[in-house]
Design goal:
Elements lengths: L4 H26 L4 H21 L4
Helix pairs in contact: 1-2
C-alpha cells in the first residue's frame, strides 16, 4: 500500500524541519562566524516545513 498525499506532505514537513534544526545548530555550534546566515536559512526551512504541514488535506 502506497502513501497518500497527506503522508507525503507529513514526511516532507518532518524532513525539512530536521534540516532546519541541523542548519541552525551548525551555525550556532560549529560555524559561529556564519551563524546569521545559517540561522536565516534554517528559519527558512522551518517556514517551508510549516507550509508543507499546512497543505496536508488541502491539495
Amino acid at each position: 500500500m502506497g502513501m497518500n498525499k497527506n503522508g507525503i506532505f507529513a514526511w516532507a514537513s518532518f524532513f525539512t524541519l530536521l534540516i532546519g534544526i541541523a542548519l541552525v545548530l551548525l551555525g550556532v555550534l560549529k560555524y559561529q562566524d556564519y551563524a546569521i546566515g545559517f540561522s536565516t536559512v534554517g528559519i527558512g526551512f522551518f517556514v517551508m516545513s510549516w507550509a508543507f504541514n499546512a497543505l496536508k488535506g488541502r491539495v
